[in-house]
Amino acid sequence: MTAPARKVAVLGATGSIGASALDVIARHPEALRASVLAAGGRVDALLALCERHRPEHAVIADERGFAALRDGLRERGLSTQAHCGDQALVELVGSDACDTVVAAIVGAAGLTSTLAAARAGKRLLLANKESLVLAGELLMDAAAQAGACIVPIDSEHNAIFQCLPDAHAHAGLKRILLTASGGPFRGRTRSDLTDVTPEQAVAHPKWSMGPKISVDSATLMNKGLEVIEAHHLFGVGGERIQVLVHPQSLVHSLVEFVDGSTLAQLGLPDMRTALAVGFGWPQRIDSGVAGLDLLAHGRLDFERPDLDAFPCLRLAFEALAAGGTAPAVLNAANEVAVSAFLQRRIGFLAIPALVEDTLAALPSQPASSLASLRDADQRARRHAEQAIVQRA
Ligand code: NAD
Ligand code: MG
């Protein structure tokens, strides 16, 4: 008898990671089934996915979309049940509607459902890095207590996960080398960046991703968030994490052991590999991604990141060192600043300036509870919004 199919909840189903996850799921109809699909506000896109993947449940975060979702499912003759709002999502994630959760909502909005998956002991394919930055200790503790297996769905952390298969490997770990593509503005000086547009910022040279993470890649805040993410996932301090710019984006990260060995994971820049690792682990399953032809690529380059042109990376290291509420403040100010940049309310260089200003205005406090972290998140959002209004 074969094992029953894994029932997968895809949160952020209409996004870039959501699409990659559904692509891998559809390749394994015997082993994987999309049982819950959740999205923010795009009802039409969610309905199209329901038609294709036939989940038992569909959830739209924005309550104004509920009637359109329910009626659209009925018109299509689908038996999928419609739901709306955060609470419905949390209940489904914790129920036996799924045993595996792909947490791919963008931003702090993903924290509640990600935490619910950890607390319910689900296999957690964790793309929503902002939830780790905001509440990493709480999330890791919840997962450990409930026995939830977290597989990171960030190419770098997925690479490290593959290089550190067990506790023995962790024990001999000396440091982590996190690679970064450098983003679309690699090689530019700070003054070259004054007038860059949202279109230029989201045109990533190697990866196709949602708008928020694309801007984060252009400022190097994405790598900063990933340093904090690596700290929580693998239990290493910031002083043992080095960032290397690697423009080819083929080496997804490396780990160095006390004996002088360095292990790396390589592959084409396509998130379906990480997702297939998450679904199949410890087994390997087809992802649809071709293997790597190193002769065709020829060379692998590594450079030091330019912290003068891209201060967000420095700010993230500082927030990690400060601890407490500082990473939550960093993340919240960045979310507000990136959204304002995408709406053309502020320039590109205002993103690090706003984050730095907010961190200075709200000094780190002990982060004893989820409530204190949420409070820091809200205060940082208000501060950054006010600073944007004052600039205008
Ligand atoms: P995206 O913008 O393409 O998709 C975001 C998804 O979240 C959409 O389905 C949207 O409907 C949903 N969403 C937004 N707000 C919501 C809310 N309040 N409630 C419920 N759903 C909501 O983003 P993406 O590129 O797929 O990234 C998703 C997450 O994965 C981010 O945290 C990002 O940092 C991380 N990540 C992405 C990649 C990548 O290659 N795209 C790589 C590594 C990590
Ligand atoms: Mg990454």
UniProtKB/TrEMBL annotation:
Pathway: Isoprenoid biosynthesis; isopentenyl diphosphate biosynthesis via DXP pathway; isopentenyl diphosphate from 1-deoxy-D-xylulose 5-phosphate: step 1/6. Keywords: Isoprene biosynthesis, Magnesium, Manganese, Metal-binding, NADP, Oxidoreductase. Residues 266-382 form the DXP reductoisomerase C-terminal domain. NADPH binds at T14, G15, S16, I17, G40, N128, E130, G210. GO terms for molecular function: 1-deoxy-D-xylulose-5-phosphate reductoisomerase activity; manganese ion binding; NADPH binding. Its EC number is 1.1.1.267. 1-deoxy-D-xylulose 5-phosphate binds at K129, S155, E156, S181, H204, S217, N222, K223, E226. One of its GO terms (biological process) is isopentenyl diphosphate biosynthetic process, methylerythritol 4-phosphate pathway involved in terpenoid biosynthetic process. Residues 150-234 form the 1-deoxy-D-xylulose 5-phosphate reductoisomerase C-terminal domain. Its cofactor is Mg(2+); Mn(2+). Mn(2+) binds at D154, E156, E226. It catalyses: 2-C-methyl-D-erythritol 4-phosphate + NADP(+) = 1-deoxy-D-xylulose 5-phosphate + NADPH + H(+). Residues 8-136 form the 1-deoxy-D-xylulose 5-phosphate reductoisomerase N-terminal domain. NCBIfam families: Dxr, PRK12464.1. Catalyzes the NADPH-dependent rearrangement and reduction of 1-deoxy-D-xylulose-5-phosphate (DXP) to 2-C-methyl-D-erythritol 4-phosphate (MEP). Belongs to the DXR family. This is 1-deoxy-D-xylulose 5-phosphate reductoisomerase. It comes from Lysobacter firmicutimachus.
